[in-house]
């Protein structure tokens, strides 16, 4: 017995040792396989930080885990991360590791993963990273070299998965955050029962700019009968919770040759008005359990038919609310008289047959009634819109019906407007067939929120007509800032309904506008790193984007504008906004002690790096102020810090901008010139060194005579053409370059004054190197000594010496040169 136990113990020990040792034997093979298969299939950047193998974690299967996995796109998405995963684990049949017939995967575990799917305006998706079949076929030289991976999945586990889908062509966006899910079933068989459980605290969906779901909480527990051969999935027992709404779905969906067939019905017997209100994020987040409601509500939906790229199934979503109300017990008033009848339906076929009806949407807020009705037909081909809105919203009453925190709101909105007609009437300028009349008036609006400047709009009026939308009588005060607008917009219906170009003329004026109040202070924290995702500019960045469907002619009259450290006064000129670009036409302003006139363009269309390409005509700009207020000057011309006086000139610059609207210095290109007549030097280090060499301390702080130089900015350096720098009686002729790294690379000559000892030296070669903080000035001492000796001997030997005297002259010069060197 003891011997048997001993043998069993040894056997178990050997097995455990093998389970610990074997992974190291196969780890290299699996890592090679993953990278090999990935490179065969993908046309993208694919890599991972580590690959680990365990025979114990999912015994008797082997676990293969990829850590810090990422997949980046190609082409237009070269710097865009499609997938970034903290950990991906696959359970592989242990026996399949010992053969060459393939590897069976039975379980996949995904943790801490982010997926970002994007469709550009031209329809190009960022997930199209698979190589063409012809490419993959050429890689596989023989069947013996391939190691196919077979998916016989029985369980999929997901933890902390975030997925976003941004379809810019269709104007649709969806996102799921922090998803937890498990999916089990035998996907290696022909038929199986799939058990799915999932939960996410945040589900967002919007289309056409309309948010249908905004950070809604979703839970689902579903059983699906899967016919994997025919690709048909039948919904059985299931329960779904969307915020407070509980519902279930009956029916089936099947993949077909030409699309997806379906017959699905939404069952919402438990839905009440309170549950419907839970879909409004602001209400669901504020004391929802204490909310008192009344009234009848129903929500039904079905879809039946085939969904293809060009065809919709028959579907209908209907919401009805009758005589409903809600009120917070702690507040003095509520919202009552709520009646809603809304449907979205399509008989099947063309999506253009979809019809949206809201008739009515009525409510009374703290005694003020409001009514809205709308019908939209043929939404894709030629939107046919009928809409009316009438009523008064007393913004000061909102605090009586909804618990506002750290916020006060006052003012009234009065609406009385109606629209009826087709978008084509506007496009064809058939304004007589279009009805658009009425106005929306805002009076006495005041908004105060914590950490945000107070907003005050005394009066603003939108007036509607078929041709245009007029914005008048509008002055907005934000903190100490004020902006007055007088504008007219054309094609406003096309802009709202189809996203076509909004045209307009705007007159913008202001007495004080501090742009720093509208730029987040934390954007500077991200500016030390270059942006890595060029396809989607982060909304948290400081980049000012220019919509491409706006065509504005703006006349600016701004008395004072503050931006960063700059102060601009009397800003006047024309700004043409079109195709994602602001074109400046003779935009003039006073700044830095002088004046500037700008002509050029700032372009920042969606998903592109912003760029400034403009020319500036500068007059009487202060050197010291330019250094203090402009980061570009601090990096390209730090010498300005030691100069006193003003300069005038021209600058033409082409500069890509980073996320903080600052130039990407290494890529700045430009040229220009500057001149000055009142320049003074003060503690310029390389001038100080020259002064020490020529024993002239007064040069360290001395007025400079006329200076005129031309320069070129290229590849992170400022290159100057030869120019004269007159320091009293001394003249330096310099040319060369300075760099972003503060390095100096100048060569030139210094001409010493005539008369006295200076006349003995004449013109001497010199170099300036090192950096602005530690310059290195070099003077050709041999040339200096030779010039001095030649000048001294002129009186002794003479310029017209005879042949016999030439050797004597050279000997005297050599002796003088040696003597000068010894003294030095």
UniProtKB/TrEMBL annotation:
Domain AsmA: 1-722
GO biological processes: regulation of protein targeting to membrane
Domain of life: Bacteria
GO cellular component, one term: plasma membrane
Name of the protein in question: AsmA family protein
The organism of origin for this protein: Phocaeicola salanitronis (strain DSM 18170 / JCM 13657 / CCUG 60908 / BL78) (Bacteroides salanitronis)
Lineage of the organism: Bacteria, Pseudomonadati, Bacteroidota, Bacteroidia, Bacteroidales
